[in-house]
Design goal:
The protein has helices at residues 13-17, 43-48, 50-65, 71-82, 96-100, 156-168, 187-193, 220-232, and strands at 7-11, 86-90, 105-107, 110-117, 143-147, 171-175, 197-201, 214-216. By secondary structure, the protein is α/β, with parallel strands linked by helices. The protein folds into two domains: 1-19 and 69-109 and 154-238, 3-Layer(aba) Sandwich (Rossmann fold); 22-66 and 111-147, 2-Layer Sandwich (SIR2/SIRT2 'Small Domain'), CATH 3.30.1600.10. A six-stranded parallel β-sheet has the order 3-2-1-6-7-8, sandwiched between helices. It has a two-stranded antiparallel ribbon with strand order 4-5. Its main location: cytoplasm.
Length: 238
Amino acid sequence: MRDARRVVALTGSGISAESGVPTFREAQTGLWARYDPQDLATPEAFARDPRLVWEWYGWRRELVAAAEPNAGHRALVELERRAKAFVLITQNVDGLHQRAGNREVVELHGNIRRTRCSGEGVIVDDHEQGDGPPRCAGCGAYLRPDVVWFGEMLPAEAMRHASRSAQSCDLFLSIGTSSLVYPAAGLAHEALENDATVVEIIPGETTLTAHVAYRVPGAAGEVLPELVTRAFGARAGM
């Protein structure tokens, strides 16, 4: 880590779970327990019942708003500050990396705190809050969360940036991700194919485990601060 010229970190739901953000399926509690999230997070579900989908995401936004970045997030901020070159790629939609202080964050699945027009695809920062999905002031289409739903393509530029970064790094950190969701799960293999050292940080084993140079079992909030401290000899900002 100390000697790496280009470091890439890929984060998954594990690091957010340590901040109290429930995983996609764990969010199905209370009134939402009777719904399958895969029946809500689709363009078809939004077309069928936009109010239901908007309210579900409103509930999830409340969960995210109540969470705070943890020691793992803060260690990645310190790593970005110390590394010669650093790119953070995340599958999470909660914005906790930016709230912690990371500057260059590639969001593969969008950001639940942003809203965009379902018709024009543009981000809408100012809209009226009502008891259902608001309408775009420009075209009248419903506004929707700026996240990638099942059946949708990942943002092309974000995926290109992530792929280029994985192919050109010499250290790739896979943090808190099951390595099951593609195309994000393929990034570690792109790094491997280009002779990068791949390190996996997660409590259990995954499909990636057999291929990595090092596996550090444990929670990101415990492992990352220790690694950054050992590499750079300081805990500033963590």
